Amino acid sequence: MKQFVTRRLGYSLLSLLVLSLTIFFFVRVTGDPAALLVEPGASEDDIAAIHHKFGLDKPLWAQYGLFMMSLLRGDFGQSFYYQTPVLDLYFDRLPNSLLLALVAMAFSLAVGIPTGILAAVRVGRFWDSAGKLFALLGLSLPSFFVGLVLILLFSVYLGWLPSSGSGGVLHILMPAFALGWYFAAAHMRLTRSSMLEVLGSEYVKLARLKGLPQSWVIGKHAFKNALIPVVTLAGINLVLMINVAVVVETVFAWPGVGRLLYEGISFRDFPVVQGIVIMGGTMIVVVNLLVDVVYAVIDPRIRLEK
Amino acid sequence: MTVTTRRRDVLALAALGMAAGAVRPAKAAAPSGQLTVGVHITLAPTWLDPAETAGIITPFMVLYALHDAVAKPMPQGNPSPSLAESWSAGEDGLSYEFVLRKGAKFHNGEPVTADDVKFSFERYRGAAHGLLKERVAAVETPDPQRVVFKLKNPWPDFITFYTVASGAGWVVPRKYVEKVGEDGFKKAPIGAGPYKFVSFTPGIELVMEAFDGYWRKTPSVKRIVMKVIPDESTRLAALKNGEVDIAYSIRAELAEELQRTPGLTLRPTVGSAPYYMYFPEQWDPKSPWHDQRVRLATKFALDYNTINKALTLGHSHITGSVIPENFEFYEKLAPPVYDPDKARQLLAEAGHPGGFDAGFYTCDAAYANLGEAVINYLGEVGIRAKLRPLERAAFFKGYADKKYKNIIQGASGAFGNAATRLEEFVVKGGNYAYGSYPEIDELFPLQAVELDRAKRAAILTKMQHLLDDRTMYVSIWQLAFISGVGPRLAESGFGLIKGFVYTAPYEDITLKSA
Amino acid sequence: MSMSSETIVLPPSVSTRSAASRLGDLPMIPIIILAVIAFMAIFADVLAPHNPEVGALTARFKPPFWQTGGTMDHILGTDQLGRDVLSRLIFGARVSMVVGFTAVIFAGVVGTVLGILAGYLGGWADQVIMRITDAWLALPALTFAIFLAAIVGPSMWNIVIILGLVYWTRYARVVRGEVLSLKEREFVRLAIVAGCSKATIMRRHILPNVVNSAIVLATLMLGVVIVTEASLSFLGVGVPPPKPAWGLMLSDGKQGLMVGYWWLTVLPGCCIMLMVLSANLLGDWLRVKLDPQLRQL
Predict the structure, then answer these.
(1) Which of the residue ranges A2-16, A200-214, B242-256, B403-417 would you say has the lowest mean pLDDT?
(2) Which numeric CATH code is attached to A86-303?
(3) Which of A52, A232, C138, C223 has the fewest beta carbons closer than 10 A?
(4) Any domain includes C254
(5) Is residue C119 in a domain?
């Protein structure tokens, strides 16, 4: 077991190294941050001064070396645009992102799990079709469109909800809906397939043979077991949500990490982009690692697999 | 308290000679109410510190509230005296003396002194600081109210660069900066402006409160909150919903909607950014663009007024020039006319009777809608171009690296005067000049050392006419920046300062009394 | 040697039913919708009443014909530059089909090949491919797409390449997992005993058995790709104008939503929705038919 965890950890670190290299060089071929901090027409002196200030006048390998060195000390550097430590910015925004992701996840599960169960046990009935359609609709509409329609309806016409920003309970409803809806279909699908798997298993068949009522079988036996993979996926998706909320955050001016990242890219704010991608990557890697380890504990066969 | 405030107002007004826009109802109430501004771009901490002023207009959105300058663009002039009451130039053109205003204070109550001015100039590291430091030999402070700048050589543009084209003239308190350090200053800036810093969340929100010791007048609005709302539709929704009082940058059809909404007002302001077509291959004899008639055809092909009406509700200015009309030494040229037949005829004369495939029309993706409209019109006379919108950073990189061919749709909102624009975009060696014409090049060094303003203006005028005669550029418009104002505002502050697209001066903004 | 010439394909687990009964419950509605979109895409030049990229500013924002101000010339109205919306929707079907299918196929081919290589060869090849896959997966797809868009510049084909490069990892993971279990199966061992080369085994024995999963995944990915393409347009790095892509139309038209120019968003929005919904319904159906074990898609 120990060996398994060590090996997995090694892989994860290796992946993060590849990630850091990828992001470091990618972000540097996309353009010059100095050109964005001045208007076109600025003098070359001004641009050279900015390059020097950010250390962009050094050779690339030296920049990468310095970056990795400070990374090992837990220092993600200073944002070019905000002139603030990247980690400060990140941890300022992270609570907002987590909050949005949690509420969106709650919504997504509230839609995904019931529709998934219905799809597994009541195939072809009205509520199955309606639920499936609703979940799939979230997957089929770009979230910026959903967001704008929501704003138009609930802020402009009805005046019930604030259009943008954060602060109160009301602020989070629309962005969480727009974000969560997109993920509902994934949770529905997994609930359905794992329900089917569990319903086909020996012990559920046994429970049925014992003459237990259908709702009892589904509720008590099947549901509990079918939930495990769904919860696992929800964990992974929660991290994903933090990273993919860019569009929703932009539409609703929600102060999350996604927008920080998107703006970092637009401003060619290399340290911000590197920092957020590596932090996000680390979270994904850690969650995956946890999932793997938990599964390995449950099912020792996995450990033997390469 | 009330009496002193009123007296200060009277004094300030007298000093300004009854400034336009400074006329305020004679009520002497303490500042009250809150103004919420929906900002279209991300608020950066660097904007809180004038020393970091990049060569773009956006930081001034914040600077006008928190800080004040020796002299700055104001409703009554560009530049006009602010912390300095007056200035004068030495006969030899080698020295400039500023006399500071008595009674100007920082937010911590300390007076603004010559020492602070000198310190701020030396601390300044933003746009054009290299140029300023290279040309200024020394800054002297003979007494606390007087600052003298000594130049190495005569430099006719000194005042422009010190007060308009950079942030070097904005003053920060020396003692405070030295006490709290650079990082401390950015976290809790203190200035001499009409509003005090309260709190700042990078990229999200800035809160400021009225400073009752501001020399010009006590602001009328107690609190200003600037909120970043990146999406244009959301900004308009927030304005409609009463969540913000001012929404910056509302374009095209959203502006029409804004205009239709009862209670909301449209406030267009024309900034310093002319948009133009540039033909990088005009110096290549093998290119169709080498023929001036082809370039001229594009000029006649555009229906300027229809484009203007459709995209900026007719508020942009069709100037025909690549120099902003509010710049010093700007020469008014004949405005372009829409004449598609003339355009076709010119093309035919140039050997393209059925038109020709013009290749790419490269532009900043944020202004692709203008590009699409222009291409539509070019296509109508037979100039068939393909739109190539690039994301902003990539666009300017490729532009400066001289990578583009065919047609470039460019724009610049950089500070300066006609000479500084010509230097970058027209004259040989300019960052954005893909080629040049010798007769224009040879005039440039002459004006750079000319101390006689009239003679210098004559040279710069000639250069602008030559530029037009060669059809080196085809100007599309000087862009109107359209903002929306909610029902609670009496004076929104838009358009008070010529060429400034945001609301300012903040102390002139008033709310309707409830 | 004779062994290797014969391809062994694992029967789908629902093989007990006859082919006819399997076709019997074909999801007709999604197939019809996709067929209509494909028809529009193929015959766009004949069907579209106007040039989709040319308009007149003087005729902008004309509503559909049944609203006041609408004309039969522009049945579904005109957009912000006076271009015919119907024509743009028809040509948009072509752009969306081309972008969607080629991106999905590109991603599928790259991901399947790498997945098979990683799964079957194991060792170093596996390590290298899977570490890259993991790193790639950790990059938010939109971020990655914005980067690539900034580097290679905008064009429809670049968007295809970007989407392909972003999404190949999904296939690689699934396929590798399948290959790992196939490797232990009897028929692969027999092939090894019979002296087949690794390349032959991968091509003739492994590939046909993972194709089902790849196809199911591809159908489901079609929707993801189309929606991502629209989101890229919203962020300003999608298919460049004036090309009529549905995502771009939706993003360009969003300003009109508040103004009452509903046709600029609702119509392309419906097209996207119908296409993605159909692809997903078809994908779900295929998944049940071809590969009931497949999960987490």
Answers:
(1) A200-214
(2) 1.10.3720.10
(3) A52
(4) yes
(5) yes
